[in-house]
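hiii so um. not sure if this is the right channel but i have a protein structure encoded as tokens and i wanna go backwards to a sequence. like what aa goes where. can anyone help
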């Protein structure tokens, strides 16, 4: 196995050496490969981790070449842009906070593995992206490669809906209670990766003039939506609903229609009891999964009252919350299924603060960029982040190899837009 991994890394390194952006494309296409796990010596790893490190190593070796990294241009950009400097400091703050969390965690060995896979490697890939991708064409191509893995996963999910094949749980496999899992081990995994990418389907449709290309993107988008529906993920539907609402309000011609639609929907739900009960069951935590989350959050907050600064410790949530666990018949999950509680319990108050400052600055800069040039790229990234965060209110949209990469890719899109505008202003 080690030999095969080495050959794979060398081939990917050669591809990256030819042109660094090819390595970026390859990593994005290989996001589901974190499911392929192995050990190198005694160190556990995944194929995705090897891919990121192979690309990053070649990128680092190529840095002295000005085509990859131009020191004079970089200094000029940072001197003339306090914004890029702030991005740099916020990223550094995030690294320091998560590194501290890893080293003070009671589960030290497991914490280092999580720190490497969910924080350091995605940030390395983020650095490769913002120094490598320069044009909208490269961004479009990167998204196309990202969609390869998602399209395959969506296809498998649709097949599962009608056959029940490869679903690992008998309850999810049964026809009446069927929830598809695609290539993953549980239903919510696919919506977590696919839902934030739906806005980028619209971005690709807008960017391409070919009717064939647009038709293919529409087909892909419909497949992704169907696959999300077949998983029965309420969090993903809430996220997509929030994204659609923001998009509709943002686009001036559709504002009256969105307002009317929202009003009529609310009226219908309020006055028709079966719909009211259905809405309450799915979105007001009256279902079993909702009640379980409420209990989980209550236990987590009780634990955080005792350990507000450190949290539960990176990779230590289950042990930390055990003394506060009230539902003895229910398992303790790896994370508390809320993006803010996830960061607080895993990385402590400092880690939560670093995450919040990143997200707030993301939206502040996105609005500023939008006001400057009404970029559709910015709008797409904002809606993607909103979907991710709203879904994250009831799930875990960051603490997984592929999800952390997608989070930093969304941030990279805004940073790249900052750089593009700065370079244009300096050239004019």
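sure thing!! here u go:
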């Amino acid at each position: 196995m080690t030999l095969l991994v080495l050959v794979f890394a060398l081939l990917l390194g050669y591809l990256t050496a030819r042109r660094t952006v090819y390595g970026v494309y390859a990593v994005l296409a290989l996001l589901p490969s974190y499911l392929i796990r192995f050990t190198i010596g005694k160190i556990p790893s995944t194929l995705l981790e090897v891919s990121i490190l192979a690309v990053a190593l070649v990128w680092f070796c190529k840095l002295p070449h000005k085509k990859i990294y131009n020191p004079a241009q970089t200094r000029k950009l940072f001197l003339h842009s306090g914004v890029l400097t702030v991005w740099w400091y916020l990223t550094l703050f995030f690294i320091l906070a998560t590194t501290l969390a890893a080293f003070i965690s009671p589960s030290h060995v497991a914490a280092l593995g999580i720190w490497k896979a969910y924080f350091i490697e995605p940030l390395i890939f983020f650095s490769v992206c913002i120094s490598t991708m320069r044009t909208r064409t490269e961004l479009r191509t990167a998204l196309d490669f990202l969609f390869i893995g998602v399209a395959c996963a969506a296809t498998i999910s649709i097949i599962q809906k009608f056959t029940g094949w490869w679903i690992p749980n008998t309850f999810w496999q049964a026809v009446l209670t069927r929830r598809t899992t695609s290539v993953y081990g549980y239903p919510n995994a696919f919506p977590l990766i696919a839902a934030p990418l739906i806005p980028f389907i619209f971005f690709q449709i807008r960017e391409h003039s070919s009717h064939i290309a647009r038709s293919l993107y529409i087909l892909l988008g419909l497949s992704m939506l169907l696959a999300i529906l077949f998983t029965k993920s309420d969090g993903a539907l809430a996220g997509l609903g929030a994204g659609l609402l923001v998009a509709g309000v943002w686009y001036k011609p559709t504002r009256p229609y969105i307002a009317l639609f929202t009003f009529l929907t609310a009226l219908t739900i309020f006055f028709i009891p079966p719909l009211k009960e259905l809405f309450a069951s799915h979105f007001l935590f009256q279902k079993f999964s909702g009640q379980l989350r409420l209990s989980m959050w209550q236990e987590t907050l009780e634990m955080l009252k005792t350990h507000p600064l450190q949290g539960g410790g990176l990779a230590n949530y289950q042990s930390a919350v055990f003394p506060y666990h009230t539902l003895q018949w229910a398992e303790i999950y790896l994370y508390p299924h809320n993006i803010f509680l996830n960061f607080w319990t895993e990385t402590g108050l400092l880690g939560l603060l670093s995450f919040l400052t990143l997200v707030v600055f993301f939206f502040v800069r996105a609005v500023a960029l939008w006001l400057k040039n009404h970029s559709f790229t910015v709008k797409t990234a904002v809606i993607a982040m909103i979907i991710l965060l709203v879904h994250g209110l009831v799930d875990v949209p960051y603490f997984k190899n592929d999800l952390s990469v997608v989070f930093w890719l969304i941030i990279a899109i805004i940073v790249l837009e900052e750089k593009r505008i700065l370079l244009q202003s300096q050239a004019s």
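oh and The chain has 19 helices and two strands.
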